[in-house]
Fold this protein.
Amino acid sequence: MDLGAFLKPGLSLALTVEAEGREPPGQGWLTARRGRPHWVLERAQPVGRVLNISLQLPGFTLAEDGALIPAAPEDVAGLTLLGQVRASRFWSARGFYVLSLKILGRVWPQ
């Protein structure tokens, strides 16, 4: 799934991350830079960990086949993605972690 097509420059989407085990869910946001998604989280994640990532896309809705389609500004489509951590680096200016993820797929339906 190419999220870059749905992310407008300057748009920041809140997200929740869950990993296997006893770790509590993490919070963060998804933003677009140069047309590519950037995943920012409050906690570091080890390389190789698979995460459940839940986010809401305003201005979209889900079609019956699960496709994202533009909708009224007040509509919100919920997505849950599976992503594997490729890299995690500390962003010292903000005190958060920026992740590089390999998107494995989408959990159907949300």
In short: The two ends are 15 Å apart (CA to CA). The chain has a mean pLDDT of 83.
